[in-house]
Amino acid sequence: MKIRKITLYILCVIVAFVSCNKDDGGLDVIEVPIRDRTEQQVIDKDSLIGYLETHYYNSSVFVGNTNPSINDLVITELLSGESVPVDHTILIDAIEIKTTIYLDVDYEYYILRLNQGGGEAKPHFPDNIRVIFSGNLLDEVVFDSAVTPVDFDLTNLVPGWNRVMPQFNIAESFIENEDGTTSFSSAGVGVMFLPSGLAFYVNSPPGVPLYSNVIFKFELYQSEVNDHDLDGVPSYLEDVDNDLNLGNDDTDEDGIQNFIDRDDDGDGVLTINELEPKEYTVDTNIGETEPILAEKEFEISRSESLGIITIKTVTIVDSNNDGIDDYLDENITINYNEED
Ligand SMILES: [Ca+2]
Ligand SMILES: [Ca+2]
Ligand SMILES: [Ca+2]
Ligand SMILES: [Ca+2]
Question: Which end of the chain has fewer beta carbons closer than 10 Å to its terminal beta carbon, N or C?
Answer without folding.
Answer: C
